[in-house]
Amino acid sequence: MKPGHRFTGALAAAVSLLALAAAAQSAPAAHKVVAQIPGPDGGWDYASFDPVERRLYITRQTTVMVVDVDSGKVEAPFASGKRLHAALRIPGAEEVALTDSGDQTVKFVGLHDGKLMASVSTPPDTDGAVYDPGSGLLVVVCGDGGVVDLIDPKTHASVKEIKLDTPLEFASTDGKGHIFVNESEKAAVARLDMATGALTATWSLPDCRGPTGLAAAEGLVISACASGRAIVLDGASGKVLGDYKVGGFPDSVIFDARRHLAYVPSAISGDMIVIPTSGPDRGKVTETVATHLGARTGAVDPKTGRVYLPAADYLPATAPGRRPQPKPGTFRIVVVGE
User: Fold this and answer.
1) Of residues 138, 63, 126, 66, the one with CA closest to residue 97
2) How far apart are CA 217 and CA 94, in angstroms?
3) CA-based radius of gyration for the chain
4) Of 72, 29, 11, which Cα lies nearest the Cα of 301?
5) What is this structure's pTM?
6) What span, in angstroms and rounded, lies between the C-alpha atoms of 158 and 151?
7) What CA–CA distance (Å, rounded) separates 132 from 290?
8) CA–CA separation, 191 vs 217, rounded Å?
9) Within 13 A of 143's CA, how many CA atoms are on the CB side?
10) Rounded CA gap, 220 and 215, in Å?
11) Rounded-to-integer distance, Cα 255 and Cα 214, Å
12) Closest CA relative to residue 286, chosen from 251, 323, 242, 239
C-alpha cells in the first residue's frame, strides 16, 4: 500500500467529522477494543503475526516495529530499509522477509538480530507479500510494475515473474495452487495458476474503486475497496456472494483460520466488519466493531483471536489537499478481542 494513496482528502474530512462518527457507532457487538499498546510516532503500513515467537511485526517506513504480545512490550527497532511495506516471518526458518520499494528488493534478515542475510532484486513498487504454505514460496506484489514475483525463501531467489498488464495491489493464495490479486485500476480480481503463471480468470468488482486488501479464505475471496465496499466472491466461479458498504479506505482483509472469521478494518469510519467464512452466516457481515480513526491494516493472533490494528490521532490538514499528519504521542496498536 502506498502511504497516502487515496487516503488524504477522505481522512481530512474524517478528522473534522470525528464527533459525528463517534455518535454514529454501531451497537455493542461480540468483539470490542480490549487494550491499546502505545508506540513511537511515525507512519506505518502492513502488519503480520509470528505465532511461534509470539511477536507482532509492523513496518514503520525505514524500520520494523516488534511487539511481544504476551507482555505488551515494544522491542527495539528491528532491521532497516528505505521504504518498507511488509515484514513476514518465514515458517521453519530463522529469518524474516521485508519488502522494500525504496530500492526494489526483498530483504531476508535474521529473526533475532535483524541483520541482512540476502537481498533479492524485484520489479518496481515492491509492496505487499504473503507466504504460500502449499508451495513454500513468497508471493510479492510489485504494484506499479504489474508483476507478481514468486521468491523461494530457501534459495533467496526469484523463481517466476507473472506479468499482468495493469497496476496491482494486494494478493492472497488458497494453498491449492491459486494466487488471487487485486487489479487496482480495473477494479477486478485476477486468478493465477501458481505453477504455470497463467491468468485463469478475471472477475469484476461491482461499484468498487481502488481495491486494496484481499484474502482467499475457505473458498471465498474477500476484497476491500478504498471507496468503501467489501465484496465477497466465490473462489471457484467469481460469483458475487456479498457486497457490503463499509467505511472509507479499508486496506486489508485479516483472516483468522482457526475461528473462521475475516476482518475488514476501515480507516475513515474507524471501525471493522466481521465476516464468518463458514457456518450459516458464511460470507455475511455479522458485526461492526468500533476501532479507531486511521486503523486500516492489522494482523490476528491465531492463539487468542485478538486482532492488532495500528492507529493514531490526526491533526487537521494544514491546507486543502495536504495529508493530515498523525498527532505526536498518539500512535498506538488497538487490540480487538472478544
Assistant:
1) 138
2) 27
3) 18
4) 72
5) 0.91
6) 4
7) 31
8) 14
9) 24
10) 8
11) 10
12) 242
Handedness of CA 188, 3, 292, 8 (dihedral sign): negative
Q: Tell me the C-alpha distance between 317 and 55, whole Å.
A: 34
Angstrom distance (rounded) from CA 303 to CA 19: 35
What residues pair up with 234 in beta bridges, in sequence order?
A: 220
46-285: CATH topology: Methylamine Dehydrogenase; Chain H (2.130.10)
- Backbone φ and ψ for 14, nearest 5 degrees, come out as -65, -35
Which amino acid appears at position 92 of this protein? G
Cα separation of 247 and 264, whole Å? Answer: 10
Strand order in the sheet with 84-89: 84-89, 95-100, 105-110, 116-121
The amino acid at residue 275 is I
- Residue 101 has φ and ψ, to the nearest 5°, of -80, -10
Q: Which grid coordinates are listed for 207?
A: 461499484
Spell out the per-residue pLDDT of the chain, length 338, in tens: 654 444 444 454 444 434 334 333 444 459 999 999 999 999 999 999 999 999 999 999 999 999 999 999 999 999 999 999 999 999 999 999 999 999 999 999 999 999 999 999 999 999 999 999 999 999 999 999 999 999 999 999 999 999 998 999 999 999 899 999 999 999 999 999 999 999 999 999 999 999 999 999 999 999 999 999 999 999 999 999 999 999 989 999 999 999 999 999 999 999 999 999 999 999 999 999 999 989 999 999 999 999 999 999 988 767 766 667 888 999 999 999 99
Cβ contacts of 23 within 8 Å, gap of 6 or more: none
DSSP state of 83: S
Please report, for the chain, the start and end positions of each structural domain, with discontinuous segments joined by +. 46-285
User: At residue 48, what are phi and psi to the nearest 5 degrees?
Assistant: -145, 165
C-alpha cell at 161: 515473474
- In the chain, % helix, strand, coil (3-state, to 5) comes to 5, 45, 50
